[in-house]
């Protein structure tokens, strides 16, 4: 009997689907959380059945199980651990461990793509174009390469994975990969995916209206309370307000904070680390301890949400050659206009404040320090006409 222990995310379940296709009813597949795996492996080792073929994908075991697994193999047991996480690289020291983080051509590896190559190489599975595509979509999702290459189908595959149960997902994918030559969603899946997308868009729009801005340490943070869609939220709010260094997403019920950034020069794993958490440079998290509660919830509580830039304007547009007008809650007016290709002037209440080499830098300055927003056309037109009139009047006086 083949026994596959794998992760319970899309990449892990991708391995489960491949195992079903390769071994049919001759495989027992278990989906585990990171913590759940060691318990399962202990149970497996206690049974001490040398006829079983053990496969572990997308997860690794703790050092105690590592030793026991090595003993199991040394006395004739069969085990293979395939992973792509940096933290598992030391398993390459064992004949039964194979960890690849990156392919030679620079693409990042995923457990599903490694397991696919393994099964084909060993002659358990025949390569096909639908399998190639399915495996590549899982890899693109798991490594976040889908974003850079803008492969929405990979994101939709993961959305579908979250919308139905693991069992149903597995069954649908196994049938599809056996039957079709290309990989695509069926009509029902397309429909629920479209509905989900609309729902997420609406959720993000609502959350944008609750976004609060404040300085925490040296960073200008955007703070929002949300229970779902953290990746989408962090990404969309970050792109919508690039002047924010990162977005902190608070889940009070779960007592957790997620940090997301779109900027290469901000490392949110460091920020999470200050509160006992960790993660990656662009996505991290921590528990909500007392210090974090004070900084991210109590102190920003009285702050009004960040105003939204006017978005139906025809005239007052960002980076316009005829200038862009902003306001803040103290009724200051900020006017940004170019005087040459690389010189943008910032006026505050009609007197020159400073100049910048790009529009973005000027806007960043007023958004970070004054929480300013792009005003509606009506205000822009009034501002310009008052300016013109003031000028005429002052000239007439001079005569
Ligand atoms: Mn993975």
From TrEMBL:
Superkingdom to which the source organism belongs: Bacteria
InterPro entries, alphabetized: DHH_sf, NrnB_C, Nucleotide_metab_enz
Gene3D superfamilies registered for this protein in UniProt: 3.10.310.30
Pfam families: NrnB_C
Domain Oligoribonuclease NrnB C-terminal: 323-393
Protein name per its UniProtKB record: DHHA1 domain-containing protein
Protein's organism: Halalkalibacter alkaliphilus
């Amino acid at each position: 009997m083949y026994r596959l222990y794998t992760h319970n995310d899309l990449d892990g379940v991708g391995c489960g689907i491949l195992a079903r296709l390769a071994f049919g009813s001759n495989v027992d597949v278990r989906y585990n959380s990171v913590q759940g795996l060691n318990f399962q492996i202990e149970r497996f080792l206690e049974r001490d059945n040398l006829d079983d073929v053990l496969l572990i994908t997308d997860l690794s075991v703790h050092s105690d199980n590592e030793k026991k697994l090595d003993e199991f193999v040394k006395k004739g047991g069969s085990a293979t651990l395939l992973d792509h996480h940096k933290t598992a690289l030391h398993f390459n020291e064992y004949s039964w461990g194979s960890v690849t983080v990156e392919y030679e051509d620079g693409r990042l590896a995923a457990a599903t793509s490694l397991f696919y190559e393994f099964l084909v190489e060993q002659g358990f599975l025949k390569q096909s174009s639908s399998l190639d595509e399915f495996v590549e979509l899982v890899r693109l999702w798991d490594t976040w390469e889908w974003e850079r290459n803008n492969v929405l189908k990979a994101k939709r595959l993961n959305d579908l994975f979250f919308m139905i149960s693991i069992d149903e997902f597995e069954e649908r994918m196994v049938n599809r990969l056996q039957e079709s030559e290309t990989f695509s969603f069926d009509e029902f899946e397309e429909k629920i995916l479209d509905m989900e997308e609309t729902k997420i868009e609406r959720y993000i729009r609502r959350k944008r209206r609750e976004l609060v801005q404040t300085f925490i340490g040296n960073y200008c943070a955007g703070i929002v309370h949300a229970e779902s869609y953290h990746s989408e939220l962090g990404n969309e709010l970050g792109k919508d307000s690039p002047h924010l260094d990162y977005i902190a997403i608070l889940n009070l019920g779960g007592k957790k904070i997620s940090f997301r950034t779109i900027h290469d020069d901000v490392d949110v794993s460091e920020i999470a680390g200050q509160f006992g958490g960790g993660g990656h440079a662009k996505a991290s998290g921590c528990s909500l301890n007392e210090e974090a509660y004070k900084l991210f919830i109590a102190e920003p509580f009285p702050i009004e949400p960040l105003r939204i830039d006017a978005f139906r304007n025809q005239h007052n547009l960002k980076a316009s050659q005829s200038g862009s007008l902003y306001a803040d809650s103290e009724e200051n007016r900020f006017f940004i206009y170019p005087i040459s290709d690389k010189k943008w002037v910032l006026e505050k209440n009609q007197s020159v404040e400073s100049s910048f080499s790009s529009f973005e830098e000027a806007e960043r300055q007023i958004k970070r320090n004054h929480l300013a927003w792009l005003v509606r056309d009506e205000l822009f037109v009034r501002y310009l006409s008052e300016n013109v009139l003031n000028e005429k009047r002052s000239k007439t006086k001079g005569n």
